Amino acid sequence: MNFFDKHFFGYLPDMARKIVRGVCVIILVYLIFQLALTFIIVLFLFGITSRLLSRFFN
Question: Using one digit for the tens of pLDDT, what is the confidence trace for 23-36?
Fold first, then answer.
């Protein structure tokens, strides 16, 4: 975090630094949530299609 404090957040005033850091954290959490949700949906769809294909071809 020293690199970001020095080069990215270091030139901002204290209040703006907290706001920018909060927005970055919110965006990061949102992206991680979307990625996890997409991964779960894809796994669910692969499971359903493999179950259907195994019934048709067995």
Answer: 989 999 999 999 99
